[in-house]
Amino acid sequence: PAVLRGLAPEVPDTRFEDVGGLQEVKEALRELVELPLSHGALLRAYGLPPPRGALLYGPPGCGKTLLAQAAASRCGANFLSVRGPELLQKWLGESEAAVRSLFETARQAAPCLIFFDEIDSIAGRRGGGGGGAAAGEAAAARVLNQLLVELDGLADRGGVFLLAATNRPEALDPALLRPGRLDRLLRVPLPDAAARASILASRLARCPLGADVDLAELAGEATRGMSGADLAEVCRRAGTAAIRELVAAERSWAQQQEAAAGGAAAQPPPQAPP
Ligand code: ATP
């Protein structure tokens, strides 16, 4: 549909093994999405309504998006990803149509997992506070209503599952969390030391490490309170610093060779170091 141009469903290549820690969430999520996405026919045969959605909640950067991708990938299902704020801003005035298109696209691409990030931006508690940007709130309320209509209308066929994510579960409208909607809540916490070690190991899997680097030690007090995204950033900085050192060392080695060659007679060019 034109309103969602650029939104292309595809099977992600993230695997559960790529997600550090979070063992319990991974298992719960796998069970949860496998039924509607891979075994819809069995549910139908048993006359059971398929689970339609779940909510991942927890601090930013701890793997909610990765988990959603891995869950889709595990079922060989397509993955469609939207962010609440984007839905409101990018499709200003067309946001409800965008929600309809989103579900239509998902049905056409079934089995398909819809990942709806920052759901609190459209599904904040209604009628709370007063004041504020009334027009914005009204738009969000209309989008939420449309989302509820689409969720309730997901046929008993299964094949489409909505996984929403938020950092602020307490701010959500309870209507969204009723049975038959996002009725499973899965907490995605900050990584503990063991999870931090496994995130560091997976991030650095292809980096040559110094003999004195002890990942278990790094995963201890030094990184307590860090999210997976923080750890990924630490690894990126350490890796780029190492590459810079390597480049500088190569350059100075080449300069030394040049100086030596300038003194003596012309030499054949040196081989680059391995
Ligand atoms: P947000 O709430 O901001 O949307 P999120 O919980 O969805 O965050 P992700 O987008 O999944 O977080 O993670 C951001 C990045 O941090 C990932 O691309 C990855 O590099 C790293 N990361 C976070 N958590 C993990 C984890 N458990 N294992 C491996 N990498 C992780």
TrEMBL record:
UniProt-recorded name of the protein: AAA+ ATPase domain-containing protein
Domain called AAA+ ATPase: residue spans: 50-192
